Amino acid sequence: xxxxxxxxxxxxxxxxxxxxxxxxxxxxxxxxxxxxxxxxxxxxxxxxxxxxxxxxxxxxxxxxxxxxxxxxxxxxxxxxxxxxxxxxxxxxxxxxxxxxxxxxxxxxxxxxxxxxxxxxxxxxxxxxxxxxxxxxxxxxxxxxxxxxxxxxxxxxxxxxxxxxxxxxxxxxxxxxxxxxxxxxxxxxxxxxxxxxxxxxxxxxxxxxxxxxxxxxxxxxxxxxxxxxxxxxxxxxxxxxxxxxxxxxxxxxxxxxxxxxxxxxxxxxxxxxxxxxxxxxxxxxxxxxxxxxxxxxxxxxxxxxxxxxxxxxxxxxxxxxxxxxxxxxxxxxxxxxxxxxxxxxxxxxxxxxxxxxxxxxxxxxxxxxxxxxxxxxxxxxxxxxxxxxxxxxxxxxxxxxxxxxxxxxxxxxxxxxxxxxxxxxxxxxxxxxxxxxxxxxxxxxxxxxxxxxxxxxxxxxxxxxxxxxxxxxxxxxxxxxxxxxxxxxxxxxxxxxxxxxxxxxxxxxxxxxxxxxxxxxxxxxxxx
Length: 527
Prior knowledge:
Blueprint: H1 4-17, H2 20-32, H3 43-62, H4 68-82, H5 85-105, H6 108-121, H7 127-155, H8 164-175, H9 182-186, H10 189-200, H11 202-226, H12 237-252, E1 256-258, H13 261-270, H14 273-276, H15 284-294, E2 301-303, H16 304-321, H17 326-346, H18 349-371, H19 381-391, H20 393-398, H21 404-416, H22 425-453, H23 456-482, H24 487-491, H25 506-515, H26 521-526
Antiparallel strand pairs: 1-2
Helix pairs in contact: 1-2, 2-4, 3-4, 3-5, 5-6, 6-7, 7-25, 8-21, 10-11, 10-22, 11-21, 11-23, 12-16, 12-18, 13-17, 15-17, 16-17, 18-19, 19-21, 22-23
């Protein structure tokens, strides 16, 4: 009779060659010697072979011309699968693929019955054994459905629920270099309350505030970049204004305004009797003087430097009259805008790009100026958005013209402004309690332990561990919230009802019964 070593070598060779029939016979020889079968397993290959084995079983079961030799071969393959957990996993995957159409068209019970049918068809033996397999497979599928539904219930509060509009803002924030936490990247309210709670818990607050300060800095940097300034806070406003004013002065010193028909038409409309008659009689001379200065014959010119000085005065007078004399203010604004357009048309090709950039940068600067909170010196997303709407409602509300600055403002309002209203105070408090109450209860337990045992060392150890937990648990939660591609921001949150199909394998039932200390019917029969 062959020795244990000889059978072992032959068995390994049979496995390597994929000869499942030889492996089955050698396994029987091992059993005759009361020796456990050695398993040399490659997880990936085992899973692939387990998947393919289920397909072979199904084909054999549906083949009316299958021979007993075919059935014996499938039985040997199944024995090989039963000895390898990864192969069983591959077989489970095949079952899920085959029951997917049933799951898509019917309910979970129908999917469970479908799995039982597969189990019955692919189990060799007589009618009795196939009936047992049907029952066993159906029960296993039901257990799998229950596990899937439970997992779905537990994960549901943390699912990704951002709308398409929010998804667009999330992508825009990432493109601007703003690192979002899990609550922001998913639009999930439960995580939003957790995020807010972590702001208030001492052990996590520093990390939270540092992360949000980094978000604000990145947002403000993107904002200033639109105005050609390499800065990340409002303290750069003075330097930005001086730089742009210098560019205007430089270009104006080399270019004159040429009066064209467009300028004359615009000024004629402002100077019409219909417009002048609605003005305060004491303010009309101001408007008339500006019209006289600029409404010259086509082809006339006046200096760019003179334009700059006059424009500055126009702007100041417009602002002073905006609230008290709106008709006069609108006329002054119209003259200012008309000569601005004429200057842009008159600038030489060599200076056109620099002039256009100065105009853009000035407009961005004025918009940022509207968003600066005078108390804190920070740029407020809410103030910025309100200022943009006041300056150009057609752009913000209707989406006309360039949208880069508007998009940055929207990203700021969504992710940089306070996320949760005062109405979330109760939820925030509940989240703080959830993150800290368990360690706190342990600390109280330590105090109670001292009262009971009068052992200060034991009580101090219990209370110390609990206090450490109160510090570390929120801190770890904050780390999970901020981790790129982590379980909260990508892994668990990507799961949905569709990605939690019912697991329908009797192997799952066996696993659960073993974990619970129960025995399956087959195990009891073997005993």
